Amino acid sequence: MNQPRWTLAAVLAAVILLLCLPLMTGSNYFVGIAISGLIFLTAAASLNLVYGYAGLLSFAQLGFWGVGGYCSAIAVMDFGWSFWSGILFAGAVNLVLGTVIGIVITRTTRHAFVVVTLTFALLASLVARDWIDVTRGPLGIPGLLPPQLMGFVFNTSARFYYIALAFTLLALAFLYALMTSRIGLVLKAIKQNDPLVESQGISPAPYKLAAFVIAAVITGMAGAIFAFHLKIIDPSFLDFYYMQTFLIIVIIGGAGSFWAVVLAGAAMVILPEALRFSNELRMVIYGVVLVAVMMFMPAGISGWLEQRRIAALRKALR
Amino acid sequence: MEISATYLLQLMLNGLMLGLIYALIAVGLALIFGVLEVINFAHGELLMLGSYAMALSLPLFGLSYWPALAVAVLTTSLVGIVLYEFFLRHVGQKEFERSILTTLGISMILLYGMQYLFTATPMMVDTAYGFDGLEIGSIRITVTRLIAGGLSIAAFTGLYCLLKFTQFGRAMRAIAQNREAAMMVGIKPRHVARNAVALAAALCGLAGAALAPIQLLNPAMGQAIIFKAFALVVIGGLGNMTGAVVVAIALGMIESWVGGFFGIVWQEGAIFTIMIVAVLLRPDGIFQRGSMRVG
Q1: CA nearest to B153, candidates B19, B45, B50, B56
Q2: Residue ranges in B136-240 assigned as alpha helix (H)
Q3: What is the pTM of this model?
Q4: What is the predicted ipTM?
Q5: What's the pLDDT score for residue A2?
Q6: Is the pLDDT assigned to residue A112 strictly greater than 80?
Q7: A55/chain B closest Cα distance in angstroms
Q8: Residue B236 to residue B286: CA distance in whole angstroms
Q9: Strand ranges (DSSP E) for B214-282?
Q10: Given an 8 Å threshold on Cβ–Cβ distance, is B269 in contact with A126?
Q11: Which residue, among A47, A48, A51, A294, would best test binding to B if mutated, counting the most B CBs under 10 Å from its CB?
Q12: Hey, which residues 131-190 in chain B have their CB within 8 Å of chain A?
């Protein structure tokens, strides 16, 4: 992965800016948007690992997102656990769930993969709605307690923001390390040419499984934090709308490109909020953007820029 | 709970109606997949458009059922043609993920656009038939349901004849079976693909229009049903239309029976579990894949 020399400086500047964000604005509204932005970004980045790198178009992320949210909410409200163990519980459940589902579906065909992941997400939302003893059904679980750490209560948006930020930075750093490692390279190779990877003596299945499970765990934990940001969880937490948002971030940035997805995530969350569209209109615009990107630059913005760069190089050679 | 024969029969009849509607949608999906190798995520929204076209044109015709139905079918087939000419035509054969994402984007535009225009509040539709019912012994069935069932069966018969006996249908099957060979004998894939999408959209419009007086309408209704249809088509063997119909009817029955005996809560959960297991056991579907066999 080649990137400009100023990448490190840009990342440092962005991190410092993000650290100071709640200090710069007193508005809970903006901090709230920033929290959603960070969480969506993390979920999109893990979808990027599955779809962008491993080439598996997974709709299961929505299911993992919901399972994570419900697990942490139930752990805190019913088991009386702390927020932190709730997050870990969400991660652990998704680890098991992701492994069980992943072992089976990473071996099926592309078509079956899409269908099974989609069906899993829908099943999760049905369970949320219908398993009333555990999930309270359509009423949901309101009044999720704010997290606490050694007597310090994260009860304002600005305080909660730092939890989301810490998680996002950790998750993105981990994903970055993973994607630039040998594993990331193998995943990219699998996406491009599966038989060629096998001919090199590498079995693609464990790599695909690993990508699927890691994404499941990160998405689940992101969902858990998002539930506590909303302070309520109900079946609308599994609305297909979330999946569409994650997908559009990955697609616009360019599947398989780490930084582009991060930037697209920031842009796609902040822009519609800044322009104050109604929720429906925003989704219409997402749809238009998705279709336009698919029509005119199927590799996303980063892929388009890459093609332009290669074209320029070719021209210079001639 | 005592199980009476009439209860069983009533459940079976309800299941059959449900299955026939599913089948109309699934058959269109299978047709599009067979000819274009595209899974159309916007198919559910075509159904929704059909329903809304019916609902909006009914008052214009004094609640008369049949002209409104024709309007609905025409509207969706036009939308289908637009869908093909502007979008699907540019998506290549091997770009499976791209086709899904493109149609997903179109589905988002249609769904949220309709929600913006008509709000998410459910809509009731009344036809000239109202709530008239037919009673056979102690089994009751409303006229609108009966018409829906009859229309589906008529549509399948028509589709079968179309694919089996006309040049139009033969060309479609030829493209699905062997694209290169079909092109060599002078079949234009673009025309055939456009016809296939328009036909599938018309079937969807018919299903939507038939469904409109039976259940409440809301813009998200297509989404709820498309995921099922999507799985149906895969279980039935992608592109295999007979498979899609058989599985759709079977699933409608199962859904109705599970709902009847174990409560509504289990109904959809059971269906999705069956789907996951079926797809995992036979990733290529229960029936043979492709080749659009109609007989």
Answers
A1: B19
A2: 143-165, 167-177, 179-184, 189-211, 221-235
A3: 0.83
A4: 0.81
A5: 57
A6: no
A7: 9
A8: 5
A9: none
A10: yes
A11: A294
A12: none
